[in-house]
Amino acid sequence: MGVSASLLTAGVASFFAAACFAAGYLIAVYSLRASLKPAVNDDEKDFEKKRSILGVRRFLSLVQTVISGSAGVRKNDDAMVTVDRGRKSKKPVLLEIESLAEILEDFKMVLVVRNDLKMGKGKIAAQCSHATLGLYKKLHDRAPKALSRWEMCGQVKVVLRTESEEDMLVLQERAKSLKLPTHLTIDAGRTQIAPNSRTVMAILGPADVVDEVTGGLKLL
Question: Molecular function terms in GO for this entry (predicted)?
Fold first, then answer.
């Protein structure tokens, strides 16, 4: 867009220069014709003069219209650049857990596995990996201090179990009420379990606050 606008500006400048030359040429021709033409009455002189002036005015009006159109293109181009810059500079909204990372030190992640699905050990390991990575990606830009605090604690991960999808969703609502970030892993259903099954929920936050959500669960 910037290149096309520059080319259009250069073209308009050339056109304007040619227009000025043409206007000067018309005025010169009129003057020369007036000096060479036999004497006529005053009415004819006034008519010729007005006709020439009207022609020059029409030509200059056309030039002004073209220039105005070019200015509009440049204005739109500048507006698009401003919008693009605004989009690039827009920062993600931070999660409330960021403020907790400044006052609390002991952070951990809890992975809640649905025991009723009867997944094999390898399947559980894969689903826990998905949940961990999903939550990490969610917090990377929106809670970087919380992630750093968790990493400083040795990336603590505790795996617990729940007995139904309904219980898992209740835990998630409880976590949300405490402003703790969560991530639910939903399986594609290619092996062992049905498609779109919710398998593991990851929660990250201050250890004491996370325990308010999962403190009643047993280890897997």
Answer: peptidyl-tRNA hydrolase activity
Q: What letter does residue 116 receive in the DSSP assignment? A: G
| Contacts for 23 with CB less than 8 Å, ≥ 6 apart | 56, 59, 60
pLDDT tens, 119-175? 999 999 999 999 999 999 999 999 999 999 999 999 999 999 999 999 999 999 999
48 touches 34 (CB < 8 A): yes
Distance, in Å, from the CA atom of 34 to the CA atom of 51, rounded to the nearest integer, reads 13
For every residue of 42-79, which 3-state class applies, written as one string? HHHHHHHHHHHHHHHHHHHHHHHHHHHHHHHHHHHHHH
Sign of the alpha-carbon dihedral angle for 77, 82, 83, 84: positive
Nearest to 136, CA basis, from 109, 160, 161: 109
What residue ranges do the domains of the chain occupy? 2-89, 97-219
